[in-house]
Amino acid sequence: MIELRRVGPEEFAVSLDAVLDVYTAAMLPPADQLTGRRAIMRGHASYSRFTCLFAERADGRTVGFAYGFHGEPGQWWHGVVRQAITEHDGQARTREWLDDAFELAEVHVHPDYQGKGVGRAMVTGLCAGRLERTAVLSTRDQETAARHLYRSLGFGDLLTGFVFPGGQERYAILGTPLPLAQYV
Predict the structure, then answer these.
(1) Is the pLDDT of residue 181 over 70?
(2) Which of 47, 154, 163, 180 is an S-S bond match for 69, by CB 3.0 to 4.6 Å?
(3) What residues does each domain of the chain span?
(4) How many angstroms separate the Cα of 160 from the Cα of each of 84, 164, 180?
(5) Catalytic residue among 47, 150, 171, 183
(6) For residue 119, which phi and psi values (nearest 5 degrees)?
């Protein structure tokens, strides 16, 4: 049985080895990217209203994690996406989606536990009780299980075919109004 446990920024930071093990199994990144990913995740834990859920087995092993925070100017993802949505759809749409947004930065489940409701439980658990008007995230712009999950929770496309600066892979930027209650 998998249990969800909320952790704060300090516990998250000291648990980065377990977090990166799940991330590596789920995403299969090149090994040379893990040091940078660790630094990014550690930095995210310092953001305003950071919240994280660990999905754990009965023995305490972490098999999934998800976290997010309040999006604000000065955060890299927030700034890049704000500019892209503004260029594509204008200031009004950007303000609608990003001026009061909960940014779901990472949602990952070890492959052995995917397709069992762990990701859904983490996303709905993170979004429950949030005071922001919207939730936003980025995911690979492909028909993946993650994309299907987000759609089933009410997330819709804000941008597709988006390439982050310095990257090559295409992403979709998704958003949904909060609360998610109607999708749970």
Answers:
(1) no
(2) 47
(3) 3-183
(4) 11, 12, 22
(5) 150
(6) -60, -45
